[in-house]
């Protein structure tokens, strides 16, 4: 059954029809500041952390210090994933997108020079002074930038799923 065949879905066993549109995905990437960044350990166990991100030129960019275990893990096993949810934003009930791709650890000054202020502007939009302070906080010895080039995308829009459904929320949740 596809979405056009019923007023609402009576089972959520297959939610693949509730694809996140390109426009809603772009709004999510513009408004959300955090993602769950995931990689595998030496023992091939999955692990993930919440990180601030920037989406720029078709890639995701995150930062941490080189001493974080994720850096050596990414260098050894560059295949990673990240997930982004609309929770905490003002764009409606749950929208989410997961990406898989290859990561690269960067340490060059040119990358840091554009990335730190760009990330600071995204996570501290209300104050130029706060942006400057945040970018300065990031600019420390041993810090790296990780670039994730996505090649697989899984998007989901629960607002579409719950449209006209008695199981849907009665108010917009954030």
Task: Describe this structure as you would to a colleague.
With 174 residues, the protein is an alpha+beta fold. The protein has one domain: Pnp Oxidase, Chain A (Roll). 28% of the residues lie in helices and 33% in strands. It has a 7-stranded antiparallel beta sheet, with helices on both faces. Helix 3 crosses helix 4.
| Main pleated sheet | 7 strands, antiparallel
The level 1 CATH classification is: Mainly Beta
Please tell me the CATH architecture by its name: Roll
Question: Mean pLDDT across all residues, rounded?
Answer: 84
Give the percentage of residues in beta strands: 25-35%
> So what's the overall shape?
globular
Series of H and E elements: HEEEEHEEHHEH
Quaternary status of these chains?
single chain
Per the CATH scheme, the topology name is Pnp Oxidase, Chain A
CATH superfamily grouping: Electron Transport, Fmn-binding Protein, Chain A
Kindly, what is the distance between the CA atoms of the first and last residues, rounded to a whole number of angstroms?
Answer: 30 Å
Q: Could you estimate the helical fraction of the residues in percent?
A: 25-40%
Give a concise summary.
This protein has 174 residues and is an alpha+beta fold. The protein is 28% helix and 33% strand.
What structural keywords apply?
174 residues, seven-stranded antiparallel sheet, 28% helix, alpha+beta, Pnp Oxidase, Chain A
């Amino acid at each position: 059954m596809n979405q056009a065949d019923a007023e609402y879905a009576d089972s959520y066993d297959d939610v693949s029809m509730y694809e996140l549109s390109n426009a809603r995905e772009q709004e999510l990437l513009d408004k959300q500041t955090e993602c769950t960044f995931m990689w595998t350990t030496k023992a091939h166990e999955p692990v993930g952390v919440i990180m601030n991100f920037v989406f720029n030129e078709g890639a995701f960019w995150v930062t941490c210090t080189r001493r974080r275990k994720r850096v050596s893990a990414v260098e050894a096993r560059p295949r990673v994933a990240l997930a982004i949810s609309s929770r905490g934003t003002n764009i409606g009930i749950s929208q989410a997108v997961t990406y898989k791709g290859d990561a690269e650890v960067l340490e060059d000054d040119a990358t840091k020079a554009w990335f730190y202020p760009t990330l600071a502007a995204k996570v501290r939009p209300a104050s130029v002074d706060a942006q400057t302070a945040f970018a300065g906080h990031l600019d420390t010895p041993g810090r790296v930038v990780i670039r994730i080039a996505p090649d697989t995308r899984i998007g989901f829009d629960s607002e579409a799923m719950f449209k006209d459904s008695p199981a849907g929320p009665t108010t917009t949740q954030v």
